[in-house]
Please model this.
Amino acid sequence: MATREELEQRIIEAIDLHRELILEVAETIRQNPEIAFQEYQASALLAASIQKFGYEVEKPIGGLETAFRASRHGRSDGPIIAVLAEYNALPGIGHGCGHNLIAASGLAAAIGLSAVMGEIPGIFEVIGCPAEEAGGGKIVLQQAGVFDDVDAALMVHHAGHQTGVGTRYPEGTCLAVTELTFEYFGKPAHAAADPQNGINALNAVIALFTGIDALRQHVPMETRIHGIITHGGDAPNIVPHYAAARFYVRAATLEDLERGAARALGQQRLKQALQGLAHEPGLAVDQKDIGGRGFRAPAPGVLQPPRKLPEGDLGHAAPPLSPRRRGDRRPAAGGGAHGGRRARPPR
Ligand SMILES: [Zn+2]
Model:
């Protein structure tokens, strides 16, 4: 029976042995960026690469075409440990914060664990999670029951100066988030020949940004409000008849978001709408709470900085696997402990 240290060493050696493949997958995904829910090439490449290491791949899952689950049995049906891979990019930017590296880290974990699964209990999975820059893919998967029988899910998010947009994250933090859009509808007119007959929707968006900046001193601690103008007009010589902005609002907890930041912003939005209408007769406003990405921030201490790894490792996941069995709760659907499929809840 190998010791834990020996198993860890074998995991690291397997990852080192396939270093070139892991880097190639990361680089291929970086060079072919696909935005939320469109990650067809990335998810296919990642799932196929993991499959070569003895994993059973289910694709699609959870109703998302670019989601997948790759699983490999150990010596028993539990615990089930999942590493979450991401692979979507940002529109116009590409892989800004390095989700291609999160994908390759999932592959590295799969390769590493494939070297020891015959000797340890449980099931190891890589779950391919689409749409993490926008759209909240994991929330969709969670609502579809994809994580129902997962005992622990792990993921890494890279930071540093070598991703597309250099980022330094404080350790151990995570914020709840929601999305808001604002649309203003005015009236077009020629900006030189007929300006007095235009109703300027861009002015309302600029007033909205100023109002939100004034609001910052009245929101709960840890609140972040950041947005962009997604439409500011069509030509400088035309009074903008349509303007739009999109914001993310983040807070320490979902409760803070709902009770504090979002509500304060809601009041602000109302005020702005009234101000805009007062300043510009005929200006209409349409404001939507998208809200699809609202989630509960984890309890303090759940998020952990990664362990120090030997130099040269891309990353690996070696959870301390407990010998607890789950066979009594959910027997394998057939094929026994090695390679047998588990019964899963419908989704
Ligand atoms: Zn990211």
